[in-house]
Amino acid sequence: MDVQETLQLLESGESRQLMEKLYGKGQAEAGISRYQKLIKGYEAIFGNEEIALFTSPGRTEISGNHTDHNHGKVLAGSINLDCVGAAAKTDDRKVHIVSETYHQDFIIDLDDLSPSPKLAGTVDLTKGLLKGFLEQGSQIGGFHAYITSNVISAAGVSSSAAYEMLLCAILNTFFNEGKLDIVAYAHAGQYSENHYWNKASGLLDQMACAAGGMVTIDFHDPTSPKVEPVDFDFGSAGHSLIIVQTGKGHADLSEDYSSIPKEMKKVAEYFGKEVLAQVKEQDVLENLESVRKFAGDRSVMRALHFFEENKKVDAEVAALKEGQFGDFLNQITASGNSSWKWLQNCYTNSNYQEQGISIALALTEMFIAEKKKGACRIHGGGFAGVIMAFLPNELVEDYIAYMEKAMGKGCAYKMSIRSLGAVCWNEQLVR
Question: What's this model's pTM, rounded to 2 decimal places?
Fold first, then answer.
């Protein structure tokens, strides 16, 4: 279907239904307008080619903070902010990508996927993902893509993973007959970040973006994570999910992020294991003095967080399935406290005077204590960036105004969980 035919298709009733499924009730026209702009942007660069549309959401980590890299459990959901692309398969060995959002225009030769010396940036990330497909035996080929994203950058909602999973959907549709599953997507994204960004990431971000909806994921076997949908609508409980951006930290946080899996694995090493999922909590407790000497006290605290956080994920999922929303909120609070006190990822020791996360959590806890409703926790990797709050709908506007007064205009975003992950828009339209 060429550019002009696709523009006509956007005006159909089926298109409006899909837009509301992706972005929420009353958002069809805004979605159509955004996609029209996307297609016209594509046409201005590449001409009137046979194209397909793709979408990949950002994600929210509801619980399971820093557990995936040690093969633990998480509760996550895809959100109504996404990375969207118009793409066309080509006959050459070139990938030409134009990013409207980040003002980038680059071409990658598929016969040269070596990373740059700096191991950073979108080009390296893209090369790494292409290489990741090849490493797992999947096919790649040349294509054109024009991409735009409203997934908030540096806000803990995985703008990079949304981009990675968008490319996976394109590669799967064009070159792999749609046969790849979300586990293959996630491993390609992880490979890219590990080898082309030098970032010790797990699989959470990619899996949550690719899967769609709210899911619990058990990474005990990382080659085949267990993904289970959690059918729960926060709107039915009269609550909303709010993300608060506290400002990007000025320090380089790579060492802080990498220290968490490294220290957890140091505890596992004491027992001759690779990751904490292979170790029993009771064994750590019974050998605590020796483990502390071997791995260090912060490593032990982070290991205890891992064990307890896995239990909280199970408790939260059970509470949602049983309709016990109050119990769910209590577990969210407990999970947030564990991240703050045990995992210790609310600020960086390299710049302890910069504590936007801590300030935002303190303010939110004061708000919740006064209203006697809601829960909050750190969101994502931590050290700087974002917190998450669950609040009754009637308190959302007051909370946003309260936080914006303290943290700056536009810092708070009300989000919703969307049911679709990284997909070809055209294929969803015909279902």
Answer: 0.85
